[in-house]
Amino acid sequence: MTTATLSRTDREIQEDVLAELRWDSSVPASDIGVAVKDGVVTLTGTVDTYLKKWRAEEDAHKVSGVIAVANDITVRVSGEHTDTDIAAAAVHALKWDTSVPAEKIQVTVENGWLTLKGEVEWQYQRQEVERAVRRLWGVKGVSNLIVVKPLASPTDLKKKIEDALVRSAAVDAKNITVEVQGSKAILKGKVRSWAERQEAERTAWLAPGITSVDNQISLV
Fold first, then answer.
1. Model pTM?
2. What is the pLDDT of residues 146-182, one digit of tens each?
3. What span, in angstroms and rounded, lies between the C-alpha atoms of 61 and 20?
4. What CATH number is given for 83-148 in this structure?
């Protein structure tokens, strides 16, 4: 797999990123420029929402051979959206999202840029908070400084992940070992398929307090 990635030319990567942008109907592909040098993609252009800028970046990361993305797309908002308006809309959005502890999140807005701070127990909550605000009108960018703070000890987290792997019908748990260092889960072992490897990683991410997963599982 590594050899195939290294053999891709910048021109091939550029063409595939452009194709991926055109494939995504939520992104104005005609307004976005794509340049590639040594596998690093630079996105330029202008869009009217931060969500479109974010989606373009996600699309670029999907393409084989891309090693990094520099997102220089400018968000040019139409209409009047003051920082106060954006802050109020963000607080409202979080209060209506039952999957996040809105009372634990602090929102700051400066020149359309949202900064999120606070503590949550789960990684998915950190992600959900950002998802809830990135689609708001007037937002030009989001800095997610929310900290995932586990209530369980590393030993407890290890046991939770191991038990979850045993429960999963899609994973052969006996071939996987779990190590937890602080809030980082390390998975090792051998599995039969890429899908099984991904499912083991997804399961580890679901543990409360896990902020990173080092998936060292190899295929048989």
1. 0.63
2. 988 877 788 888 998 999 999 988 888 888 999 998 8
3. 10
4. 3.30.1340.30
